[in-house]
Amino acid sequence: MLVAGLAAATLTAGSIGRAADEREPAGPTGVEPAADAGAVRPGAVVHLEFVLRDASGAVLDDNRGRPPLVFTFGQGEVIPGLERGLTGMTVGEERRITVPPEDGYGAVDPEAISEVPVDRVPPEARVVGARLVGQTRSGREVPVRIREIKDESVVLDLNHPLAGRTLVFDVRIILIEPP
Predict the structure, then answer these.
(1) Are residues 115 and 62 in the same domain?
(2) Which tens digit of pLDDT belongs to each residue from 64-114?
(3) How many alpha carbons lie under 13 Å from residue 10 in its C-beta half-sphere?
């Protein structure tokens, strides 16, 4: 995938990488569990609380004390390994789900590394590790990370930031809306 040009470069500031002690304490989500909701199955709308760690145990994301992740099961809205691991869970159930790269964000794709002229990247964003928004030739916006800065060019990595990583989810089902 090549980058035709960078859109108005935007550094992203997400929750990935924040330490668990920087978060607000866990609290009610405002969603009441339904006792007769049954199990997670295709078509059900699942409300999920999670802590995401890498294989070494470092916290990558955590939505405890914040709104739950809500998705329709079986629609491909979450990574395949997480979805498979949730199958059959019930409201209140907790589980640890380990997702290898091939069932998560895939392996690192060397074809997703691209070089652009240095003048295509705003000076203030020319920092290794900076996250920007790029644009493909078809106009689709994609997140990119600066991998290397050379004299005349910048090496961009278009792989998902979690590509190539084993992910460990500690999940709790908050609510299941039946299909």
Answers:
(1) no
(2) 999 999 999 999 999 999 999 999 999 999 999 999 999 999 999 999 998
(3) 11
